[in-house]
Specification:
alpha/beta; nine-stranded mixed beta sheet; seven-stranded mixed beta sheet; 20 helices; 18 strands
Length: 618
């Protein structure tokens, strides 16, 4: 069957479903004919996509689910309204959406770029879109694939800690192919404004819910999450608190999340530990906007998202193996100016790896490398190397006395992790700085709009315009990654941009540390991601040479150091010592340097009238 014929069959199916929905549950004479036609079309699509992979595999499974739903309807005609509205129509719409993507968008780079540009333009336009009327304030989706004991715990917590009596919240229960009684459990739950969707055949990464949600905001609630007191109230207040907020995520227990989105807890990660967890959460969940953090990227074990953004920016099907989907969504939000907030005043429990973990067991092999490359090819930058953040930087911020109305300059912020960390440090003190980004690599120009007040594109440090003096100047990359012809001259230029009492804080890589040396020995180069066919050069700056020059400089000598090491650096250093000795005694300088991954270099401009600041080390 030709692609155009399948597209026509899907179009006819959508028209038929729209007709049935308009009938509002009344089965007239045409209904039986439409349902019979849909069954025949689903059979043909299933046959046409048999053995397919990727998007077309999902289309194949939706065709099978349509037939399964029609079988349910034949067995129980009383399900007519729900099956048509919550299964047949959304399944058909999703099949049509995926077919158009698979046949019209994905086949060529030109069509993929055009499609992405269209979505991004639409996401930007939502900043100024007129208010819409929604049936509900919030649509909560509980997604489950087996693990009934976790699903029961999640749903009971939602019903306990969510006020459905006001009528402004709908609950969508999506059973994604479970065979453990989840379907029967969902259908027996008593809750106002509850709707149930059943897929007999599991579809990893299903997005069919976008066709049925009716809320202004959308919450994706996996069955390995447990609701706590005030959880939704806090999320809603955050989303309504300012312009440009696209999504918000609570914190959880740190062993079940990455990206510094968790906190340590004392209770066990078990069902028996949930009573103690609820007590902990009740004490923790006190509204405090000063604890809301701007983030360049979020890993949403649970998140609340604007409904219009969710419908528009639903998961890109090029990520076929459930990895880097969150990175992709965060990038789309960031590059269209939408803010992403982590709510540290709101705690929820996350068992971890239940909903997706079960489905991923069927996906052989490690998908991280494959999907990391897909991300790189789509956005032109690496998802991990581009974060623009460094561990332990909060220790270096202590060198500065923060005030209101300060000016901040971030060199090459990339995605903005370090910039967000600094902004959040101001916020916790009740201040709002004025943020300026100086971008050298034009690939990162779209990544600044969500956080910075102004952005300047420059080629060299000396090109940064002297638009006033800055209280803090820092960087989202290592010193050796900045465009430096003369390191000291560049530092002098940056120093001249500091206000009295200001701080220049730069991350400095240690090229003689055990991490760098081990990667050089094993891989032949630095740990930097490269695309297919790429070879990336790199430079090194000797910290020892740099600090020796600074100590004798007339004004750059006012500096401090903070060293960063990880446990893995210490063990690697012990392994490398015999290699470096080679029959000779290693110097104390080498011994000291080996475990150090990186350093923070802080250079300080004295307050007016204070010329006595001296060099020190930490």
């Amino acid at each position: 069957m030709k692609q155009e014929q399948v597209a026509e069959l899907l179009s006819v199916s959508v028209e038929g479903m729209d007709y049935l929905v308009r009938q509002e549950g009344v089965r007239d004479g045409a209904a039986a004919d439409i349902l019979a036609m849909l069954h025949r079309i689903a059979e043909r699509v299933e046959e046409e996509t048999n053995g397919a992979e990727g998007l077309f595999r999902q289309i194949h499974l939706y065709a099978k689910n349509i037939q399964a739903s029609l079988e349910d309807l034949n067995r129980n005609p009383n399900l007519y309204g729900r099956v048509v509205g919550m299964e047949l129509r959304p399944f058909v719409l999703e099949m049509q959406r995926l077919w158009e993507l698979g046949t019209l968008v994905l086949p060529s780079e030109e069509s993929r770029v055009a499609h992405r540009a269209h979505i991004m333009e639409a996401a930007v336009s939502l900043h100024h879109a007129p208010p819409q009327n929604y049936r509900y304030d919030v649509s909560i989706l509980l997604l489950a694939y087996n693990k009934l004991e976790y699903t029961r715990c999640a749903l009971e917590s939602i019903l306990t800690h969510t006020n459905f009596a006001r009528g402004n919240i709908e609950l969508i229960l999506l059973n994604n192919g479970s065979d453990d009684g989840t379907r029967e459990y969902f259908e027996g739950v008593q809750c106002p404004h509850k709707r149930v969707m059943n897929l007999r055949h599991n579809i990893l990464g299903t997005c069919t819910y976008i066709h049925v949600m009716q809320g202004k905001y959308f919450v994706v609630f996996s069955n390995d999450v447990v609701a706590t007191s005030h959880w939704l109230d806090h999320l809603l207040v955050c989303m309504e608190s300012g312009d440009g907020i696209g999504t918000a995520v609570p914190i959880c227990n740190e062993e079940s999340i990455s990206n510094a989105q968790g906190i340590p807890v004392l209770y066990p990660n078990t069902f028996d530990g949930m009573t103690a967890m609820q007590s902990f959460a009740a004490e923790h969940n006190q509204m405090n906007p000063a604890l809301w953090e701007e983030r360049s990227q979020l890993m949403p074990f649970l998140h609340i998202v604007r409904g219009d953004l969710m419908r528009l920016c639903v998961a890109d099907p090029v990520f076929t193996r459930a990895e880097f989907v969150d990175d992709d969504f965060s990038t789309l939000l960031r590059r269209t100016g939408w803010r992403q907030l982590l709510l540290k005043d709101t705690f929820m429990h996350h068992f971890g790896g239940v909903t997706l973990g079960e489905g991923r067991k069927k996906d052989a092999g490690n998908a991280l490398d494959a999907m990391r490359r897909v991300y790189y090819e789509k956005w032109g930058v690496d998802a991990w190397d581009s974060r623009g953040g460094f561990m332990g930087v909060e220790n270096a911020w202590r060198w500065h006395v923060f005030h209101e109305n300060e000016r901040v300059l971030i060199l090459e912020p990339r995605f903005g992790d370090l910039a967000c960390c600094l902004f959040n440090t101001y916020r916790r003190r009740g201040y709002t700085p004025r943020m300026t980004a100086a971008v050298f690599d034009e690939r990162y120009l779209p990544d600044t709009g969500y956080l910075f007040d102004e952005t300047v594109a420059v080629q060299h440090i000396e090109d940064i315009p002297p638009q006033g003096q800055y209280d803090i100047i820092s960087a989202g990359c290592y010193l050796d990654e900045l465009p430096l012809d003369d390191v000291i001259a560049a530092l002098e230029h940056l120093y001249m941009l500091l206000a009295p009492g200001g701080m220049l804080l730069l991350p400095v890589r240690n090229p003689t540390g055990s991490y760098e040396l081990d990667h050089l020995i094993r891989e032949g180069g630095r740990d930097v991601y490269v695309g297919m066919g790429e070879v990336k050069p790199y430079v090194s700056i000797s910290p020892r040479q740099l600090f020796a020059v600074l100590q004798g400089h007339s004004f750059l000598k006012n500096y401090r150091l903070h060293c960063i090491s990880f446990e893995s650096d210490l063990s690697l250093a012990e392994e490398l010592k015999p290699v470096l000795q080679n029959g000779m005694q290693t110097s104390s300088e080498v011994e000291w340097s080996l475990p150090i991954r990186m350093l923070y270099l802080g250079i300080f401009c004295p307050e007016q009238g204070d010329g006595n600041l001296q060099q020190s080390g930490e």
